[in-house]
Amino acid sequence: MAGNLPVNSAASWLDGHEPRAAGLGRSHLFRVIEAGLDPLILVSTLWSLALYWDGRLTSAYLILGVIVFSLSFPGASELRVSVLRMIFNIIFNWAWIVGLLLLIGFSTGYIAVFSTSVTSHWLWLTPFSQVLAHLALRRAAPKLLRLQGALPRAVIVGMNPQGEALARGIVGSDYSGIKLLGFIDDRSDQRCVKQDKFNLVGKIDELPAFVKRNRVQFIYLSLPMTSRPRILQVLDGLKDTTASIYFVPDMFITDLIQGRSDTVCGVTVISVCDTPFKGYNGFVKRASDAVLSLTILTLITPVLLLIAILVKLDSPGPVFFRQRRYGLDGEEIVVYKFRSMVVTEDGDQITQAQKNDVRVTRLGAFLRRTSLDELPQFLNVLQGRMSVVGPRPHAVAHNEWYRKLIKGYMVRHKVRPGITGWAQVNGQRGETDTLDKMQARIDLDLDYLRNWSVQLDLYIILKTIRLVFKDSTAY
Q1: Intervals of CATH 3.40.50.720 along the chain
Q2: Residues 6+ away with beta carbon under 8 Å from 462
Q3: Torsion angle defined by CA atoms of residues 94, 96, 100 and 105, in that order, rounded to the nearest 10 degrees
Q4: Rounded-to-integer distance, Cα 461 and Cα 102, Å
Q5: Class (C level, CATH) for 11-25+149-254
Q6: Cis peptide leading into 74, omega within 30 of 0?
Q7: What is the pTM of this model?
Q8: Mind listing the pLDDT tens digit for each residue in 239-261?
Q9: Dihedral through CA 85, CA 91, CA 97, CA 98, nearest 10?
Q10: DSSP β-ladder status, 261-264 and 267-270
Q11: At 441, phi and psi to the nearest 5?
C-alpha cells in the first residue's frame, strides 16, 4: 500500500543480480515454485526409492523426509545463473545436506535402519533429478508467465541513470513477471537520458490519475535524494491508490558493497561499503581458511621441499621471494612466494612480469605457469594475513599508483587478499599492462565482495584447479 514504503537497494539491478523482494524483478509464481522445487524433489526421490526397494514407506523414511525438507526449504533460485553454476550450486547444497545426515546417522547408529540400496541410489539420483527439474523450469518459465494472465504493471518515476538501470533489468529479464509501462518525469524527452528508448508516459503531477487509470501495481521512485519535498508530495498524492511503492534513491548509484540496514544506538543506518565477513560469516571464512591451509600444507610438504631445492640449484639467490603487499584494511603484509626471477624487487618502482621476461628463471617460468610459486602463500593464510580466496594482493608500489587512477580501488582491501580470486578465474590473470585491464580486475574483485558466499569460494577454488592446467596468461 502507498502508506508502506519498502526501501530496496537499486544495486541489485545496477550490478545485474536478482533482487529478492516481492515485485522487484521476479514473478511471485517462480518464487513459490523455486522455494518448494528442491525440497519436494529430495523427499519424493527418497520415498519413491523406498517404495521401489523396500516395497513400503516405513516411519523411518517419513521422519527422514521431514528432516530433509526442513534442511532444504526454501529452495534457492537458479533461474538467472548459468547452467554450469546451477549444477555446481545443486551439488554443493546436496553435499552439505548428505554430509550432515551421514554424520548424524553414523554417530547415532540410525544409519543401519535404512536400506543400503535406497541410500546409495538416493545419493546420485537426487542431484540428477534436481538438475533436470531446474532445466525443465527454465524451458517452461515463459509459458508459466503467460498462464498467469496479464502481468502486473509498473512505472518508474524519474528518468535518470539508476531508473534506466532498473528499467533495463525489468525489460531484459525473461522471468521478471512485470510489464513496464514507462517513465514518469517532468522533463521533456530531449532533457531526459534516453539511451534505451524508454517511453515517457506522463508528468509527476499526473501520476495518481495515471496509476488509477492504468491499474498500476508497482511504482518505483527513482528521484534524487535532494528532492525530499517532491518525494513527500508524490507519496501524499499516491495515498489514494493501492499500488506498492518502492524507493530507488540515487545514493545507490555509488555501488553498494555489502549494503544492508543496521541499528546504531537505536538509529537505523544503511551501510554503503562494508565487509561481508562480519560475525558468523567472518568465523566461517577464517575457520575454513585455517583448516584448508593447514591440510594443504601438510599434504604438500614434500613438494615444497623439492621445489625449494630446485630453486636453489637453478639460480643464485634466496628460495623465497618476500614482497610487501596491502592486506586487510590496507595494512602492509609480507607475502611469501617461491622465487621465480633473478631479482627480488620490493621498492617504490616495480615492473610487472611480462611475456618472455628475461628476469624469469628457467624453473621460474614453469613455476609461474603452473602457479606452484604461489604455494608458500598458504603460510600467509595460516598466519591470518591472507585468505585462500579473495582479491589478489598487489605490490605496494602498484597499489599507490592505481589507487589514484581507479575509483574504488582500495575497497578491495575490505577483506583479506587471496591466493586466488574471482578476477583470476574470469580471465583477469597475469600482466595488467593497460589501465582497462586493471579496471576489469578491480570490477570483478568488487563483484566478489558484493556476492560472497561459501559456495562462491568453493566454485572459485575448483575453477582455479582447472585453470592451472590450461591457462596461458600467467608468465
Answers
A1: 11-25+149-254
A2: 88
A3: 40
A4: 25
A5: alpha beta
A6: yes
A7: 0.66
A8: 878 888 888 766 555 566 777 76
A9: -170
A10: antiparallel
A11: -65, -45
